[in-house]
Design brief:
Elements (H helix, E strand, L loop, with lengths): L15 H13 L6 E4 L4 H9 L6 E4 L3
Parallel strand pairs: 1-2
Length: 64
């Protein structure tokens, strides 16, 4: 990422207290996130699908 001058962005939303409350609410009501784990090598494909409006679930890169 550094050699290609790429960067990542986050979208902060609310305070740490808000995040804690949101997680507690989710646990209390059995709300689980829906996502598709992908390998780093599939990130370009996931980004292309997102740009075309065909991404479906959120994709999360798994480094494990």
């Amino acid at each position: 990422m550094a050699l290609n001058r790429l960067h990542t962005l986050i979208n902060p939303s609310g305070s740490p207290h808000d995040a804690r409350d949101t997680l507690a609410f989710s646990v209390a009501h059995g709300i689980l996130p829906q996502f598709t784990p992908i390998d780093l090598r599939d990130a370009d494909t996931a980004l292309d699908a997102m740009a075309e409006g065909h991404s479906g679930r959120r994709s999360v890169i798994s480094f494990g």
